[in-house]
Amino acid sequence: MILPPDSRSANLLIWALLFGTIALWQIVCLLHSRLPPLKTLFDLLCRWWVTRWALLLGWFWWGWHVWVRGGW
Amino acid sequence: MARSGRRFALVGAVGAYSAVAVATDPWTLHASILTAIPGIAAASYAVRRGWHRIGRDDPPLQIDQVGALGLMIWTLLVVLLTLWVLATFFSHPRSTYPTISSILNGVFDNYALRAAGFMGWLAMGWYLLRR
């Protein structure tokens, strides 16, 4: 069980660190031809019909969540 | 030249659609219909491309030991992100434990960013469908 710290700033920092690490790893992978960029992970997941439909469903769910059920 | 013109027109059309789609408030029929249309179009296109078929003729992926290690690191990052998403989602109050959605709600108060975000969402769908 992960317990987030009781501070908005700390939690925002963790978000930034997570996405920053993902972006950094993607850059490292793009710079080194033997390392797989995120595209390879998608290619791998799209090889099975269950996972490619799950990805598409996830994409649609995300859009619905943000654009229809959003709170701006 | 014709090809780049078509691409320019396509980007323009997607931009215009996005601008219209996010022009009104969420929780409305307008938002629901304009978000559902790309979803239905994507599902139809996926079926047309044979996504429902169990076997596809994809060439084998060439992944060596370094590549496998890289994929393991990707998996670890996805697991960490998922755990953090769940941890913030089940924590309250939202002001102290922001989720991606609550952070984006603040960003998408701006109409131009909202339209750009919708375009990004459409582009992501198109990218997935081309796999």
General description of the model:
The complex is a heterodimer of chains A (72) and B (131). Chain A has 3 helices and no strands. The two termini of chain A are 31 Å apart. The mean pLDDT of chain A is 93. Chain B is mainly alpha-helical. Chain B has 5 helices and no strands. The longest helix of chain B is centred in the middle third of the chain and has 25 residues. The two termini of chain B are 26 Å apart. The model of chain B has no long low-confidence stretch (mean pLDDT 92).
Reconstruct the topology from this structure.
The complex is a heterodimer of chains A (72) and B (131).
Chain A: H1 8-31, H2 38-45, H3 49-68
Chain B: H1 2-21, H2 29-48, H3 65-89, H4 100-107, H5 111-129
Helix pairs in contact in B: 1-5, 2-5
Terminal CA distance of chain A reads: 31 Å
Largest sheet of chain A, in brief, is: none
Quickly give the structural class of chain B. Answer: mainly alpha
Mean pLDDT of chain B: 92
List keywords for this structure.
heterodimer, A: 72 residues, mainly alpha, 3 helices, B: 131 residues, 70% helix, 0% strand
Concise description?
The complex is a heterodimer of chains A (72) and B (131). Chain A is mainly alpha-helical and 72 residues long.
